[in-house]
Write a structure and sequence with these properties.
Elements: E1 10-15, E2 18-19, E3 27-28, E4 31-36, E5 39-40, E6 46-47, E7 52-57, E8 61-66, E9 68-73, E10 83-88
Parallel strand pairs: 1-4, 2-5, 3-6, 7-9, 8-10
Length: 95
């Protein structure tokens, strides 16, 4: 376990990982993060992550905010999210 393992990273691949509840605030202020076959069960996992999400599989709870999402995938044995808030945000530039 460690605190803040992926803060301020760019072009990072996270593959075959499990982020438990002890991984609080693991990925903040990062760009171009690619997560493959990764399970997230941590609170406040992401902050200020902008851009497109290719796919999300079995979102259960929490908050997902993105400019766009390619697809949301549900396994047949997984119930649909009752407490997952998915929002689309517009990219804004401040002068």
């Amino acid at each position: 376990m460690c605190k803040y393992p992926f803060w301020h990273n760019d072009h990072t691949l996270i593959e075959d990982c499990l982020f438990t509840v002890y991984s609080r605030a693991a990925i903040w202020y990062s760009k171009n993060i690619r997560m493959v076959n990764t399970w997230v069960d941590a609170p406040k996992m992401f902050r200020e992550i902008n851009g497109h999400i290719t796919s999300i599989k079995n979102p259960g709870t929490g908050f997902i905010s993105a400019e766009s999402i390619g697809e949301i995938i549900f396994d047949e044995n997984c119930k649909h999210p009752g407490e997952c808030d998915i929002r689309f945000v517009k990219k804004t530039h401040l002068a």
